[in-house]
Write a structure and sequence with these properties.
Elements: H1 5-10, H2 13-22, H3 25-31, H4 36-43, H5 45-58, E1 64-68, E2 78-83, E3 93-96, E4 103-108, E5 111-115, E6 122-123, E7 130-140, E8 145-155, E9 159-166, E10 176-183, E11 191-198, E12 203-212, E13 220-222, E14 225-229, E15 234-239, E16 244-249, E17 260-266, E18 269-275, E19 282-288, E20 295-302, E21 312-313, E22 322-326, E23 335-342, E24 345-355, E25 361-368, E26 376-378
Antiparallel strand pairs: 1-2, 1-26, 2-3, 4-5, 5-7, 6-7, 7-8, 9-10, 10-11, 11-12, 13-14, 14-15, 15-16, 17-18, 18-19, 19-20, 21-23, 22-23, 23-24, 24-25
Helix pairs in contact: 2-5
Length: about 400
Amino acid sequence: MKHSPGDAVAGNKDLMTDIFLRLPAKDVIRCKCVCKEWLALISNPQFGYSHTLRFCRNNRYPRVLLLRKISDDTGNMKVCVVPFRSNDQNTLVENNICEPVSSILQSCNGLLLCDANTPPQSTNPRTKNFEQRCSYRVINPAINCCFNLTYNSIKPYPHFLMPFLYYEPQESPYYKVILFSEFSWTSQRGAVEISVYSSETDSWTEYGVFYQGVPVKFGVYCNGFVHWFSPHKILIYFDIKKLCFNELRWTSYEFCILNVQYFGQSGGNLHLVVANPKRDLEYHIWELEKDYCGWILKYHMDLNHICEGVNLKVQYHADQVSMCVVCQENEEEDSAILFLSDSNDDEKIKIVSYNLNNHGSRILHELNQEYSFKALQYFETLSRTSRFDHV
C-alpha cells in the first residue's frame, strides 16, 4: 500500500514537531484532535515549553485583550477575548476560567495570576496573632491548566498582601510568585516584607522586612522587576533576581502624580500616560529607558477629534478615560486602547484602537457595561502551571 507525501510528513515525528513549533498556540491545540500520535506529541510538557520558549524569543507582543465579566450566574469567572488585529477573529469570545476566582490580578507571558475567594482575616483569641490565609491560582486558559497555591500568614498585626507573577520562559520553565506584605499598624508603618513561591520546589520562602513606603497595591511587573510610581516622583522597583529595591528619581519632567492616567507595560516597555492639565483629552506618553536612566517622551495623543463620525462620546474630564498602551512588533502599529461611551446608548462601550504614530483610530468591538474595563494584555502559550508538568 502506497502512502501519500502528506502521510509521510504526518508520520514523521521530528518533522511534525518542527512544524508545530512554528504554529500559534491556538492552531497547535486544534491539531491535538487529529490523531493520537499528534495528541501525545503536543501534550508532552517538554514540547509545550519549547513552543513557549520559541514564541517568547521571536514575538512576545500581545495579540489580544482579556476583559473580565463582572457577574456570572454560574459563579465561574468569564473573560472575553478582544483581538487587536483586523485579520484575527473579529467576534468576542467568552472563556470560562477553569476554577472559581474573584479577580485576575496579572497576565505574564501566557499565564494568569488570579485571586481566589479567600476567607476573611481573623485574630486568634489564644495567641492574639493576626491570621490570614490567602489562596491564589496560576492559570493558563489556553490549555485549561490551573495550579492552586496557598499562603498562610500569622502575624501580630493586620497587613495587606499583594502578589506578582514572575514567569520568563527564556530563563526557566518554572515561575515564581512574589508576595509583598505591607504592614500598617506597627512602629515601622508601611514596612514591606517579601515572600517568594517557587514552582520548581513547590514551596514558600520568607525574606523579612525590606523597605518602607512602597504602594504595593499599584505595582506593575516588567522584565524581572516590579515597579511602583510614587507620589514623590520616584520610580521604586524591586529586582526579583537580586531581591533588592532600587529608586529612580527625577525632577525635570512636566508630569505630576495627579495627572497620571495610566501606568503599565507592554512588549517589555514601561509606560506612563499623563494628562495635559491645560487642555482636556490631550496626553503625553512617557516610556522608561532600557537602562533605567530616565523617561523619554514617546508619543503625544489628542482625543478631541477621535469621536467625529463614529458615534463616540468622551467624558469631559481627562482622568475619566479608561485606556492602556499596547506595543507591537512593528513600532508603527503601537496604539492606545480606549474604552469610550456610545453617544447613542450610554449602556454601550466601544473599544477603540488609536494609532500613536498616524493618529488614526478604528473600533475594535462593542461591549455592554457588564464587563470590567481593567484590560489585561495577553497572548496564548502552551505553558504548564504545575512543577510536576515540567521535565
